[in-house]
Amino acid sequence: MDYKQRIIEEAARMFRTYGIRTVTMDMLANQMSISKRTIYEVFSDKEELLEGVIEWMAEKQQETMTAVLSESDNVVEAIFRMLDLMQEHFNRMSPAFLLDMKRFHNKVMEMQEGREGIPYMNSNAEILNRGIEEGVFRNDINVELTNKCMFEVARISSDQQVFPPESFRSGEVIRNFYVNFLRGLCTPKGLKLINQYEQSGVLSSKKQ
Question: Are 64 and 120 in contact (CB under 8 A)?
Answer without folding.
Answer: yes
